[in-house]
Amino acid sequence: MKQLAFLFVLALLIALVGGCTAADNGKPITTRSTGTTTTAKEDNPALWSPVYVDVDCEVYTVTDAAIVFIDGKHYNSGKTFSGFGHHKLKYTKYNNDYTRDLYFYRAGDVNGDQLVDAADVTALKTQLNGTPDALTTCAGDLNKDGKLDSTDLSLLTQATSLKSGLLLLSPVDGVPVMKPSAAVAEVVKDYTPASTTSMLIKDGTQMFHRAPLALTWASGEAVDTYTVTLSLKEDLSDPLVYTSDRTGLVVYNLIPDTAYYWQVAAGDVKSAVGRFVTADTVRTLTIDGVDNARDVGGYAVGDNRIRYGMVYRTASLDGITAAGQREMINVLKVRTDLDLRSPGEGTASDGNGSPIGSDVQYINCDAPYYYGVAHGLAASEYMDALRAEIRTFVEPSNFPIVVHCSVGRDRTGTLMMLILGLCGVSETDVYLDYELSVLSEIGGKNASVPSLRSNLTRTIQYVKEFAPDGDFQAACEAYLLSLGITADEITAIKENMIEK
Ligand SMILES: [Ca+2]
Ligand SMILES: [Ca+2]
Q1: 123: CA distance to ligand 1 center in Å?
Q2: pTM of the prediction?
């Protein structure tokens, strides 16, 4: 509750501050002023690295709350941060003390006076001739390509002399954005079912989330609301649409290894159409108030793959915030909430439907998990529930589906093993998809990777007994047929899940 109350106060403060206009003489890249204390989200995926916070993208002015957001979690720093520049954040988590360097900056504000104007062009020229300091390195990198060079100087010159219209600044095309966390990338690379270890269970969400993407632009004049259109097509059809009251926007959860096109509009004024590409690797998801969230899309099925944007697996949705609901509905387009918990467990079957919202279909199945446990696949009293779970994937209008239990690891993992196995995902990738849970905060808590893995191994061995001479996919199919799932239903599930 404490956190909710804080978020409410924060939201109120953001609302109060949102209408402010920077009283500066220079050409503003932002239309907002900032106060003395800053709340921020990290935009750097590396563990324990400095946190660079572009205030135009992700910082909110608050009064005396010395709390910093990093990857969606807030930490009480025990001190306040005054103004822009370099600060030290100290905080405690899991009984460990951490210190991180925080740089609060505004893109383009190279000299740190909170204005973006011709003085910054001069300052950047000077810094480029020497060894730029850390603040300049982040504030001056206008196209956010990780390099500070003459391209940034040219963009800053254009931005500060812009008389009208909209100029896209970042991201730059050709440099993959929204990189996976270092830990996820390490696990996915050359994964074998013995490669993750308990050493990876250290700090939950820091290890799980993909870097958010900061879209930035400059405006010839201050505008109340910008509309940002994001599409997989160059003609911007079928877009995701966001609004922003500043000249920056942070987006999450885009599809990996994919080209996107984007445009900013202010009334009738439109920018050029920009293009960028996202980095590869598993689509872990950032949904405020929901842990262990990821898309099961992308796994290879022969020459094809599992479709992105069809099935998301998560931990409990009970703590979802309004921002998380918006992400689920507007970006992930969720239509069905498949809750695998027992009635009465959290909000399961409490009569209020899905925590995502009343437009989302809610299905609750008291699900089995693993083989060889009391609540397992051999327990006949859970087979009605298992059939209902599986049949949720038959009807195309149910998709996209979010599947979850409490942690999103065991009951969800058992169901995903069967669905992905049925679709022809390799046994190795099924293990990978399962083990990624231990990199999330909730899924890694009190987890022993070897014992979890042995649970899955025993369950896969049990399923394989249904087609002893066949492969894993044939075994999943035979097992589901033995449950009473029909051949037509199995075909429908595959058609829904596999991209052709
Ligand atoms: Ca400045
Ligand atoms: Ca740059």
Answers
A1: 9
A2: 0.83
Tokens coding 443: 């899924």
Percent of the residues in the chain that have a pLDDT greater than 70, as a whole number = 79
CA-angle at 173, arms to 167 and 176, nearest 5°: 130
Domains defined along the chain, listed by start = 2-181+208-277 (2.60.40.10), 282-499 (3.90.190.10)
Per the structure block, which two tokens stand in for 374? 């009391």
Which ligand is nearest to the Cα of residue 150, counting in written order? 2
Distance from the alpha carbon of residue 143 to the mean position of ligand 2, in angstroms: 5
Rounded to 5 degrees, φ, ψ at 229 are -110, 130
Ligand nearest to the CA of 112: 1
Do residues 354 and 337 lie in contact, with contact meaning Cβ atoms separated by under 8 Å?
yes
pLDDT at residue 318 above 90? yes
Across residues 271-284, what is the average pLDDT? 96
pLDDT at 41 over 80: no
| CA 153 to centroid of ligand 1, rounded, Å | 14
What percent of the chain shows pLDDT beyond 90?
60
Q: How far is the CA of 108 from the centre of ligand 2 (A)?
A: 11
Instruction: Report the first-to-last Cα separation within the chain, whole angstroms.
Output: 46
Residues with CB under 5 A from ligand 1 (ion): 109, 111, 113, 115, 120
Predicted pLDDT of residue 37:
31
Residue with tokens 């925080």: 102
Rg (CA), the chain: 24
Which ligand has the shortest distance to the CA of 107?
Answer: 1
